[in-house]
Amino acid sequence: MSEQKIFEVTINETGVTYRCRSDESLLHGMERLGKRGIPSGCRGGGCGVCKVEVVCGDYVARTMSCDHVSDDDRCHHRLLACKVYPTSDVTVEVIGKMRKNVCR
Amino acid sequence: MAMSGVMRPGHACVRMLDLDEAVHFYRDVLGLQETGRDKQGRVYFKGWDERDHNSFVIRQADKAGLDFFGFRVLDVATLNKLDSDLRAFGVATERIPAGDMLETGERVRFESPSGHLYELYAEKTHVGNGMPLVNPGPWPDAAEHGIAPFRMDHALLYGPNVAKTKEIFTQVLGFRVVEYVEGPGGAGPAAFFMSCSHKAHDLAIVEYPEPGKLHHISFRLDSWEKVLRAADLMGRNKVPIDIGPTRHGVTRGTTIYAWDRSGNRFETFCGSYEPYPDWQPIKWTWEEFGHGLDYPTGKLHETFLSVVT
Lengths: 104, 309
Ligand code: FES
Ligand SMILES: [Fe+2]
Description:
The complex is a heterodimer of chains A (about 100) and B (about 300).
Chain A: E1 6-11, E2 16-21, H1 26-32, E3 51-56, E4 59-61, H2 71-75, E5 78-80, E6 84-86, E7 90-94
Parallel strand pairs in A: 1-7
Antiparallel strand pairs in A: 1-2, 3-5, 3-7, 4-6
Chain B: E1 6-16, H1 19-29, E2 33-37, E3 43-46, E4 56-60, E5 65-73, H2 76-88, E6 93-96, E7 107-111, E8 117-121, E9 151-159, H3 162-172, E10 176-182, E11 189-195, E12 203-207, E13 213-220, H4 224-236, E14 241-247, E15 253-259, E16 265-271, E17 282-284, H5 289-293, H6 302-306
Parallel strand pairs in B: 1-4, 5-8, 9-12, 10-17, 13-16
Antiparallel strand pairs in B: 1-5, 2-3, 3-4, 6-7, 7-8, 9-13, 10-11, 11-12, 14-15, 15-16
């Protein structure tokens, strides 16, 4: 079993920081501590609302939908926060949007 | 009411980002029964009280969402008639041969103006609910495995042109609108809840700019107690919950919306009511739709409107 570590995550726009375990996603870590900033949806890598750009730091990315993350996105660290697990302190920028229903 | 024509939702085929994880989730957390795997790698499930071979099918894919949603019709003559009725209405149809899906007869497939693939079929093998047809008990052991919904019940799908899509279901396939939601500022109906049976809804559709989206597949439980038990099991298994446990105003069902491991929303629900075909539809205004969604809080949850696969 690999040792669980704790890293600091910073959300660039707002300066919000929180401590995220290496065995939880950036989104899960944020929610567990009641922090805000990254939009939250399915938590399964399917809906795309939690998209961030990791502007600095290292991570492991798990399976996510190609509807929302292209190969180019991956190269540029544009990923779904619910499937990104930190392996160092990281800084992210929020780029996902809650897409609006026509009803709004 | 006598039931003929289209009888019921019969299968949903949904895409998974990690098939093994999804099989574990649907079999052991949701508590469906695995009934087979086909050459394409699709895995088949049913709810414990369903008698047909399968109602929920998953496959490995690189994105989440819905492949197709199918309805069982009364018999082959009905299938052929509805196929020609669809074509006469200007809807292109395609035949998929028997056996493409396990234990399932020939399917008639069409694409709705909302960008969804719908299917009709007349035959699927009877495998029963684990109890005999003579002197059965009330429920089998499988009724307590996982959340254990007794059937796949309905779908809510998001896409454009819901008014045109509704016309196909009501004018050709014999559905009726049981409830609907007016859009903001007199924009016309934004959502239809339609029934082909005694249920308040067999299919619901919501206006949305992107075609072919899945909002949720719903699985039915038989008491509010079991909805609360489902919530306990979701907590224990760290299943992300969207809304609930609560009660919808629309259709009056008690409900939990949650997401599977690939981000597809599903519902575990109970209750609702049993409308007759002569009943007038119920309307929800946009201003009050928060209560339509979540009756106790009246909150128009952002995720309901914008998180789909
Ligand atoms: S919350 Fe849906 S993809 Fe991350
Ligand atoms: Fe539903």
